[in-house]
Amino acid sequence: MTFTDKKSVDEAVAKAVKFHGDKAAVQDASLLNGALMDDLYETAVFPGDAELKAYARFKIKQLARAAGVKLASIHDLYSAIGKGKVPPLTVPAMNLRGLSYDSARAFFRAAKRLDVGAFLFEIAKSEMQYTSQNPHEYVCSMLAAAVREGFTGPVFIQGDHFQANAKKYFEDPKKEVDSLKKLIKESLAAGFYNIDIDSSTLVVLERETIKEQQKDNASVCAELTNFIRENEPEGITVSIGGEIGEVGGHNSTVEEFEAFMEEYLPLVENKEAIKKISVQTGTSHGGVVLPDGTMAKVKLDFNVLEAISKAAREKYSMGGTVQHGASTLPDEMFHKFKEHGAVEVHLATGFQNLIFDHPMLSYDFKEKVYNYLSKNFSKERKEGESDEQFFYKVRKKGWGDPLKIDWWQMPAAIKDEIFRDLEDKFAFLIEQLGVQDSKKTVESIVRAPEIEPSLENELNALTGGVKLEVDTNPRAD
């Protein structure tokens, strides 16, 4: 149920915590691990009075703080890996497009079972638009899920593919970069202390030398790095990533990486530089569906990850390479990411597929989603595309409004079955990537200062936040 006013929120919260000024101490943890968080989440996310929604989000952040859940940057961990102080590991970065609160709860259950501290929740610039999840809402969903499952410690939330639109950039560079700066500023205010800059769209392969090809990519990445450093909260060094090759394009090379860094580093004004680099290895976002609905086989070059990670660590003390578009790969591939030096793997479509294709999801509900997609996105259907190919491509757009509340209100028995299976999927990935038993290491390295929540920030995000335009060529894993 949703709360009806601030007084009812305060009365319910007062049974769980006791406030001393701006801080709160837990009185009854069982309430935090129960329906209170469900009700606060529902109030914070779904249609209702803006002031009440903002207040619910503010309370979720206060309760998270009281329960020992802290938003944090993974920068120090990647820096320690780059300097050889910590053995390399591969961090799962999970894009949760729909049923985000329930999905995050499933992850936290797996994380507690396997003692995981190294993980990222993320959402791409494009996903925020089509899943109806702005940065403030996404942070509240992840924090509410952590509190609901009794998880404590750092929680890492990342802006994925904060991407420059090439056409707009080359028409008006300042306008396009300024639009990314607005999104970054709002994301920092929400609690995104990990940001992946994707200016690889600005690589111009027609130029004569590799350095010239990477010049605009490096310049924009450096400008946004400096902007993040100027605006990051006190006590936080935001984790920043760059990207050198378009996923789905030609495979990246060490030469391209080093050319990018030679252009990028002199422009970062002696500030902390990126600690990871996204590369292309042969994957595509979401995988490729054949006309019969089966997935095309992927030829992934793990040597690209290994060679560029080696150069990144030895020459620049970086954590290593980042693999995008991995969640639809065969299960037998996942252990190879750690073996070949990837510091981070982005996962999204596989979780979406598990939910959409789950036997417990009713035919009628799925048909409702597909009818909506047919009515609203038929222009995206290419000539000769089968139903299987079309719906696989566009069903990611069935998570947001107006269907978002229908997903949330599915019968509990159905959701329980789906999320038990998703929890098992998370556990499998955790073990394959080798981040089980990483909690102690993470907490010994990562600084997670307490940052006081701001009701004003939450209200501003609801009434005047960044309005994202529909991207005709979006990236998300």
Written account of the structure:
It contains 21 helices and 11 strands. The mean pLDDT is 92. It is of the alpha/beta class. 49% of the residues lie in helices and 12% in strands. The longest helix is centred in the middle third of the chain and has 22 residues. Helix 3 packs antiparallel against helix 4.
Describe the SSE topology.
Layout: H1 6-14, E1 17-20, E2 23-26, H2 29-32, H3 35-45, H4 50-66, E3 69-72, H5 75-82, E4 91-95, H6 100-114, E5 120-124, H7 125-130, H8 135-148, E6 153-163, H9 166-171, H10 173-190, E7 194-198, H11 210-231, E8 239-243, H12 254-264, E9 276-279, H13 302-316, E10 320-323, H14 335-339, E11 342-347, H15 349-356, H16 363-377, H17 387-394, H18 404-408, H19 412-433, H20 439-445, H21 455-464
Parallel strand pairs: 3-6, 4-5, 4-11, 5-6, 6-7, 7-8, 8-9, 9-10, 10-11
Antiparallel strand pairs: 1-2
Helix pairs in contact: 3-4, 3-8, 4-8, 4-21, 6-8, 6-19, 8-10, 10-11, 11-12
Give the rounded overall mean pLDDT.
92
Radius of gyration: 21 Å
How many domains is the backbone divided into? 2
CATH architecture of the largest domain: Alpha-Beta Barrel
- Low-confidence parts: none
Superfamily (CATH H level) name of the largest domain: Aldolase class I
| Strand order in space, largest sheet | 4-5-6-7-8-9-10-11
Strand elements, count:
11
Largest beta-sheet details = 8 strands, parallel, barrel
CATH fold-level label of the largest domain = TIM Barrel
> How many helices does DSSP assign?
21
Helix/strand-derived category reads alpha/beta
Q: State the shape.
A: globular
Report, as a whole number of angstroms, the end-to-end distance. 33 Å
Percent of residues in helices comes to: 40-55%
Residue share in β-strands: 5-15%
The CATH C-level name of the largest domain is: Alpha Beta
